[in-house]
Amino acid sequence: MTKQFTEKYKPGQQLALLVLLCVLALLLQSGQAIASPLYTAEVSAEQSRQQWQREAFEQVIRRISADPDVLSHPAVQQERQRANTYVKQFEAIRTEQGPAVRVMMDQQKIQQLFREQQLLIWDSRRPQSLIWLVQQDMQGRQFVRQRQHDLVLAIQQRAQQRMIPLIWPLYDMEDLLNLTETDVWAGFWQQIRTASSRYQPDLVVTMQLSEQQSEDNLEYQLFWQLDQQGRVERFELAGSNATQLAADFVDALADLLAQRFAVRYLTESEPLELMVTGASDWADWVRLQRLLSSFPGVGQVDLIKRSGDWSKLRLQLSIPLDEWLQLVALEPALSLLASGEVNQPISLLTPASAGVDAIQLRFERP
C-alpha cells in the first residue's frame, strides 16, 4: 500500500493528499463527537427504567414536533411502548431536583419515524429571539434587567426545555439611549428595531407585564408582540401567577415558531443544484458538505464542478424547497444571494425566491 502510494504520487502530491486526509479525519471525528441537544433528555431517576425511557422519548418527540398533540398519534403511541429501542446511551447525573438520568435518543431513528408518518419536524436550526421585557407595578414601568429575576429565570428554564434560543439585551448606556420602557410599552417599533439591530436577532419580541388588583386577588396580564422582518403580531395571556405566565409565554412562542419553521418530508427526494461561493479550499469544501448534510431533508451532496471561488453542487432534497430556504436563512454560515450579485445576500425568514432559476449561496467559514 505504501509502495503503491509513493509510486503513484509525486512528493508534493503526497504531502497535499496527506494533509487533506488529516483534515477529513479530524472533521469527521469532530462531527461524530457532537450530539444534538434536541435529542437529549433529562428525566428523574426515581422511577423505573421503563418509565424514564418512555419519559425521555416523550420529551424529545414533543420538543421536535410542530404538533402539540403529537404524543396522541397512533404510531407515536406504539413506538412509545418500544422507547428502549430509541435509547442510544444514558448516564446518571445529579440536579437541583435530585438524582436524574441524561438520555441520548437515537436521532436518525426518531427522524425516520417522523419521515415515515409524514409528521412535521422542527429540527436544530431555530431562530434567535431578542426579548425586551417591561413590567408595570405600583412603582411604575421598568425594564426587567436582572438575570436572576423570577420572571427571567422562569423564561430561561422553559426556553431551555423547549430548546428556544433567546437573546437578552445588555441594558447598557447604548440600549437605554436608544430605547425607553415607554417605547416598548407603546410599541414604537422604529425605536425598538433601532435598539435591537446591534444584537442581529432573527426575531424581536416585546413583553409587557402588568398587575391588576381584582377584589382580593392579584391578576396579571401579559401582552407580547413578535416582529418578524417588519411584520408585527400581537398576543395576550392572563393569569394569577406571573412566573407561570412567563413560562406559558415561552410555550406559546415555541408552538408558534414550530408551526412556522417545521418541515415535512416528501415521499420522494428531488435533485437540487446550487452555486456556492466562499469555499476556497478542500478543507472549506468538507466543512460545507458537512454543513449542508446536517440540514433535515438533505441527502447525498455531490461536488459537480469547481471554478475559482465558486462550486457547483448537487444534493438530494426530500423537503419542499421553500421550507429548506427558510432553514438556510437561519444558518449564520450561509447567505442566499440575489442572482448574479455576489455581494448582496438576502436575509429572509419566509423566502419569496424559492422559484429562482439558479440558487446561489455564500459560505462563510464558522
Give a quick rundown of the structure.
This protein has helices spanning 2-8, 11-33, 49-64, 74-80, 107-116, 150-162, 173-178, 181-186, 189-196, 242-261, 282-293, 321-329, and strands at 40-44, 87-95, 98-105, 129-137, 140-143, 166-167, 203-214, 217-228, 231-239, 270-277, 298-307, 310-317, 334-338, 341-346, 359-363. By secondary structure, it is α+β, with helices and mostly antiparallel strands.
**Quaternary class:** single chain
Helical content class: 25-40%
- Cα-based radius of gyration, to the nearest Å: 24 Å
Q: Secondary-structure element sequence?
A: HHEHHEEHEEHEHHHEEEHEHEEHEEE
How would you sum up this structure, described in words?
The protein is an alpha+beta fold and 366 residues long. The protein contains twelve helices and 15 strands. The chain has helices at 2-8, 11-33, 49-64, 74-80, 107-116, 150-162, 173-178, 181-186, 189-196, 242-261, 282-293, 321-329; strands at 40-44, 87-95, 98-105, 129-137, 140-143, 166-167, 203-214, 217-228, 231-239, 270-277, 298-307, 310-317, 334-338, 341-346, 359-363. Strands 4, 5, 6, 7, 8 and 9 form a six-stranded mixed sheet that branches. A six-stranded mixed sheet has the order 11-12-10-15-13-14, covered by helices on one side. The two termini are 36 Å apart.
